[in-house]
């Protein structure tokens, strides 16, 4: 896959779609309180970072090319952080929880990279 603004935007939109779907499932489709909490947390963080990825795409369009690097960290973080929480909520072993902090670290790196990219704004 070539990493273009179109692809970043498509992946951000799909991430937002997943966030809404898992959030709705948490609200209406699952009874276990722990699973519900994991789904809510995962969907909240995934939505925030889907929107951040869209912002990165807009910044790249505005000439801030470095922002594309932050988008990669945001989407990778969503995959690991939210994905591991979704997996546990759906019955995966709790060992999956060891992946969650790695996703959180990717989120942090993404925000740091975005701050670095912002220095490119004229």
Secondary structure layout plus pairing:
Blueprint: H1 5-28, H2 33-61, H3 67-89, H4 100-118
What tags apply to this protein structure?
122 residues; mainly alpha; 4 helices
Short description:
With 122 residues, this protein is mainly alpha-helical. It has helices at 5-28, 33-61, 67-89, 100-118.
Fold and architecture overview:
With 122 residues, this protein is mainly alpha-helical. The chain has one domain. 78% of the residues lie in helices and 0% in strands. It contains 4 helices and no strands. Helix 1 runs antiparallel to helix 2 and helix 2 packs antiparallel against helix 3. The radius of gyration is 15 Å and the shape is elongated. The termini are far apart. The model has no long low-confidence stretch (mean pLDDT 95).
State the helical fraction. over 70%
The rough form would be described as elongated
Cα-based radius of gyration, to the nearest Å: 15 Å
> The biggest beta sheet, please?
none
Low-confidence stretches: none
Order of helices and strands: HHHH
């Amino acid at each position: 896959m070539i990493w273009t603004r179109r692809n970043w935007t498509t992946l951000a939109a799909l991430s937002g779609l997943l966030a809404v779907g898992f959030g709705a499932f948490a609200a209406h489709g699952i009874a276990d309180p722990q699973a519900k909490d994991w789904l809510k947390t995962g969907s909240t963080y995934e939505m925030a970072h889907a929107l951040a990825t869209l912002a990165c795409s807009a910044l790249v369009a505005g000439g801030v090319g470095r922002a594309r690097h932050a988008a990669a960290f945001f989407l990778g973080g969503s995959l690991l952080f939210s994905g591991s929480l979704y997996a546990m909520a759906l019955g995966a072993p709790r060992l999956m929880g060891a992946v969650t902090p790695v996703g959180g670290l990717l989120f942090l790196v993404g925000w740091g990279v975005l701050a670095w990219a912002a220095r490119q704004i004229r």
